[in-house]
Amino acid sequence: MTAAWKAAGLTYNRFLAISARAIRRSLKEDKRIAAERRGEMDLRFARWQNGKQGEAKDLGKANAAAMAEHAS
Question: Which parts of the chain are coiled coil (predicted)?
Answer without folding.
Answer: none
